[in-house]
Amino acid sequence: REAAAPARLAKVVILATGGTIAGAGADAASSATYQAAKVPVEKLVAGIPELKNLAEVRGEQVFQIASESFTNEHLLQLGRRVAELSASADVDGIVITHGTDTLEETAFFLNLVIRSDKPVVVVGSMRPGTALSADGALNLYDAVAVAASSDARGKGVLVTMNDEIHSGRDVSKAVNIRPDAFRSPWGPLGMVVEGKPYWFRLPAKRHTLNSEFDIARIQSLAPVEIAYGYGNVSDTAYKAFAAAGAKAIIHAGTGNGSVSNRVVPGLQALRAQGVHIVRSSRVDGGGFVLRNAEQPDDKYDWVAAHDLNPQKARILAAVALTTTSDSRELQRIFWEY
Ligand SMILES: NC(=O)C[C@H](N)C(=O)O
């Protein structure tokens, strides 16, 4: 019998954007005090020789920033590069190294606008590589394992952190400092163990190839801001955002996305001026906002963000408003994505 030809290693591109996974501290005990976005991608890759058993890897430095400084322009530039690479026959999967603070926003954005079924995996770390028990190397190893795996195709943009594989739509940073920082309210999709992904569930919402949005058709994102709900709140921030040109304001509401009676008239007036009001919830670990519960959305022509947290609601509204300014369309999109 002839021996089977050895399987070709997948080709994976690592797009590096900075964050703690590229961070460096003064000594090994500095796990929380360090500078993010210091180490270049070549060094990150060279630090994990085991990557070459998983894939043919090459790195590309896109930015070198902490993720709290990401702007819409960074999202668009990164998205265009991911689209280009995913269209190339020479690329099987893409990994994006990213700071963890806004990782959930970038992952959701790419999940909405990248028209490809090739694996795109966003990864970060909670400790810099210089720290004791640094988590970045294993997280990156897991990300490359997932990006190289044909099983990961068509599952939308994914996030690997702390051995788990999450949907980029669902996942968010739930705690800081600790390496178990990322949670999905509906659970992770799977796990990576010793460089092999294991899957347990699939995303139910529209994404990537099944999305109506396409990075190729987006010149700029709509200006969308977030205002926080709390006791003794006023409508000052909402009005200021609208005056500065916001097309939609995400209300990071208390509980069910409730709105203080001190703020309701101001938001009605802003809607009458054309600004969209999207009610989300500030609760951590799984908000759930229903239309016409707490506030009469039909009457006020407001939108319910359903289970999307305020920062994810901002991303969806900023993308959706590039194709529609109709509130019913906006609401449909909030149910479907
Ligand atoms: N753990 C991290 O990556 C935090 C860092 N501030 C960032 O988001 O870039």
TrEMBL record:
<protein>
    <submittedName>
        <fullName>Periplasmic L-asparaginase II</fullName>
        <ecNumber>3.5.1.1</ecNumber>
    </submittedName>
</protein>
<comment type="similarity">
    <text>Belongs to the asparaginase 1 family.</text>
</comment>
<keyword id="KW-0378">Hydrolase</keyword>
<feature type="domain" description="L-asparaginase N-terminal">
    <location>
        <begin position="11"/>
        <end position="200"/>
    </location>
</feature>
<dbReference type="InterPro" id="IPR027475">
    <property type="entry name" value="Asparaginase/glutaminase_AS2"/>
</dbReference>
<feature type="active site">
    <location>
        <position position="20"/>
    </location>
</feature>
<dbReference type="GO" id="GO:0006528">
    <property type="term" value="P:asparagine metabolic process"/>
</dbReference>
<dbReference type="InterPro" id="IPR020827">
    <property type="entry name" value="Asparaginase/glutaminase_AS1"/>
</dbReference>
<feature type="domain" description="Asparaginase/glutaminase C-terminal">
    <location>
        <begin position="224"/>
        <end position="334"/>
    </location>
</feature>
<dbReference type="InterPro" id="IPR037152">
    <property type="entry name" value="L-asparaginase_N_sf"/>
</dbReference>
<dbReference type="InterPro" id="IPR040919">
    <property type="entry name" value="Asparaginase_C"/>
</dbReference>
<dbReference type="Pfam" id="PF17763">
    <property type="entry name" value="Asparaginase_C"/>
</dbReference>
<feature type="binding site">
    <location>
        <begin position="100"/>
        <end position="101"/>
    </location>
    <ligand>
        <name>substrate</name>
    </ligand>
</feature>
<feature type="active site">
    <location>
        <position position="100"/>
    </location>
</feature>
<dbReference type="Pfam" id="PF00710">
    <property type="entry name" value="Asparaginase"/>
</dbReference>
<dbReference type="InterPro" id="IPR027474">
    <property type="entry name" value="L-asparaginase_N"/>
</dbReference>
<feature type="binding site">
    <location>
        <position position="67"/>
    </location>
    <ligand>
        <name>substrate</name>
    </ligand>
</feature>
<keyword id="KW-0732">Signal</keyword>
<dbReference type="InterPro" id="IPR004550">
    <property type="entry name" value="AsnASE_II"/>
</dbReference>
<dbReference type="GO" id="GO:0004067">
    <property type="term" value="F:asparaginase activity"/>
</dbReference>
<dbReference type="InterPro" id="IPR006034">
    <property type="entry name" value="Asparaginase/glutaminase-like"/>
</dbReference>
<dbReference type="InterPro" id="IPR027473">
    <property type="entry name" value="L-asparaginase_C"/>
</dbReference>
<feature type="active site" description="O-isoaspartyl threonine intermediate">
    <location>
        <position position="20"/>
    </location>
</feature>
<dbReference type="InterPro" id="IPR036152">
    <property type="entry name" value="Asp/glu_Ase-like_sf"/>
</dbReference>
